[in-house]
Amino acid sequence: MSGFPSLQPAFTVRVDIDAPMQVGGQHGAQLVIVPMVSGTVKSEPGFEPKLDGELHGTGYDYIHNDADGGNMRLDVRSQVKNHDGTILAMYYKGTVKLTPGVGKVLSGASDARTTDYGDSFVNFTFETGNEKYKDLQNGTYVAAGHFITGEGKPGVVVEYKVSKVVYKAIAATLIETRVQLLPPVAMLLKKKYVLDDFTKYSAGKLANQFAAIADVDIYTFGEKVYLDEKNTIRRCHMLLVGHDTFKSGGPPVWAEATGERVRYYSGAGVQVTPLLHDVRSSKVYYDPPFSYIGGALDYKNTRPGMSSERKLERAVTEAAINFVFLKTGRLEQVTDSVNPDILSSFRQACRNFSLHQRSRDNADNTEFDQHSGNGSTTLVPSRGLHHIVLPSSTERNGQLVVRDRNPAPLVLRKRQFADLNDDLTDDLPRNSNKRLRQLETTIDRDAQIHARIEREVRSLRAQLVEQETKTSVAKDKLMRERTKRREAQSERDTWEEEYKIQHALAGSAAKRLKQEEGSEGWKAMLIDQEQKTVHYKTMYMAMKEEKVEWEAQKEEMRGTIATLTSKVDRQRAYNRSSYAGHMRKRAEKTVAIKALSAELAKEKEARVFWQKTWHSSLPGSSRNRPLPPSSPTAPRNQSSSMEVIRAPLDNQRTKPRQSISGIRETVPLPQGMRR
User: Fold this and answer.
1) Which pTM was predicted?
2) Which CATH number is associated with domain 6-166?
C-alpha cells in the first residue's frame, strides 16, 4: 500500500465548554455559539515543537446543525499560551455525529456517560509569529474526539487525540513487518554501528565475499554540489550508484550516506538535484556493481513502483552503501533508524556479490574453452567487474562485447567499469583508444583534484591544531588567573575572619579585664591582642587605600589621555587653518603680481603710443630723427631724449605735460593738440 500517508501522534487537547448560546439564523442552519472557558494542550513524547500550554482567554465554537439533525458542524477559534509564553491561535473544524450518547451528554441528562472515540473528527490549524513554531503552523493535523463526564466539573469536557499527517516509506516489506512488531520503547532506541561491526565478516565463511565487496577501487566517488531545503549551497562526496527516471537508462544517480539514511541525487555535472525522499525513490535503478549487490533484479520485468522485491533490494544495497562510506572514512557511524537489521542486509549483499562473481567466472571459463581452439578472439582479463573480449583481426566493427550470464548488461555502457591498467593500445580500434585516453585524462584530473583537496584538508587540519593550541594556552592562562583571583579572595576572607576573631577576642578580653584587673599577665595579653588587631586593621586599611590610589591613578591616566587627545585634535585643526591661510595668501599674492604685470604692460603700451603720436606731428627735419629707445634694454634717460626732440620747437609755446593715470613719466602733447 505505497503512496498513502500515515499518522504521527502529536498532542492531546482537553477543553471545558460552557452552556451554549442560541443565536439562530434567518435562513439555513441555525447558529449556536458554545464558549470554551478553559483547557490544556500537551504534546506527546518525541513530538516537536513541544506543547504544554493552556487556553488563553475565552474561545468560541460556532456550531451549525444539519437540517436532518444527524451531525453538528464545528468551527472553533481559540488561543493557547504555551509554557514559554508564546501565544498560538488554534483553529479546528469538523463534524460531530449526534448519537444517543452524545445527545445525553449535550442535554445534561442524569444518565449521561463518557462517549467513545469515533463520533467526532476534526482537523487542526495553528497561526503564530514565532519562528520556533513554523513547522507546527505548516503541518496538517487530524484528530478524533469524545465527550467526558463525571470528573466533578459542572460543564462538559471535550478531549481530542491529535495526530500529524506524515509520509514514511519503509525499505522492504520484511523490515516494515519487523518494525511494526517492535514495542514503542524499542522503536525510539537507535543502535549505532561502526566499521568494526561490518569488518567482523572479513574472517570466517564470508571472508571471500567480504573481500570482494570491500574492494573500494570498483566504486566511483565524486565531489558534488547541491541546494538543501533552505537554499544553502552544500558540497560533499557522493557515490555513483545507478540511473534515474527510466528502467533502461537515464541521468546518473549519486548517493550520500548521512548515518541516519541514504539520500539520492540526480545529475551529470558537478551540481546535482536532490531526489524527493519517498516520491522519486521508485525511479532510482541501480547499475553495476550495486545492481549485483542488490540481487541483479531484471528491471524490465518488474512492476512499476516499489514492490516487495525492490524494497528488499533497496535495503540490501543501502547497507552496502553505508559500508562503503564507512570503509573510505567518509562516515563514522551508522544507525538502524531505517533498517533495524542492517547487518543481516550487509551479509546478504556479500552473498549476492560473491554469487555474481562466481557465475561470471564460470561463464568466462566456458567461453574461453569455446574460443581458444579456433583463435577467433583474444580474452583479456580485467580486475574489474567484467572480462572484455576483443575481436580478431578479421573483424572490423570495433564493438566491445561483455560476456556474462545476465543478458541485460551485454554492452559496456557508460557507468560500467573497465580496467584501464591493461595496455590495449595495439588491439583496440582508434575510437576505443581515444576513449581510453579520455578516461585516463579524466582519472588524472580527478587525482589532481583529490590531491589538491587533500592538501587543503591537511592545511585546514594544521590550522585547526594551531587554533586548538592557542585555545588551550588561553584556557590555561585563564585558569591561572582564576586561581590567583581565588587565592587572593581566600586570603582576603582569611584576613577578614581573623579581624573579626581578634575584634571579638578584644571585646571578650575587655570584659574579662574588668573582672580581673589585678592580673598583669592578662593585661599584657590584652595589649598584645589589641596590637594585633590594630596591625590587621592597618593592613586592611592600607590595602583599601592602595586600591583607592590605583583607582585614582587610573582616572588620572584617563584624564591625561583625554587631554593629550584634545591637544592633538587642536594642533591638527590649527595646522589645517594655517595651511588654508597660507594657501589663501599665496593666491592673493599671485593675483596682485598678475595685476601689477598687467598695469606695467598697459603703461608701456601708452608710452609707446604717445611717443609715436608726438613724433608724427614734428616737422620733416625733426621727424627724420630717430625715436628714443622704448625697448626694455634701451637707456631710460628721458630728459635727454626730450631735449633732442624739443630742439626745433624752442620758439613755440608748449603745454604743460599731462599726467596719464597709470603712467609714471609725462610726455609733451603734439603740436596739433596745443592751445
Assistant:
1) 0.33
2) 2.40.160.20
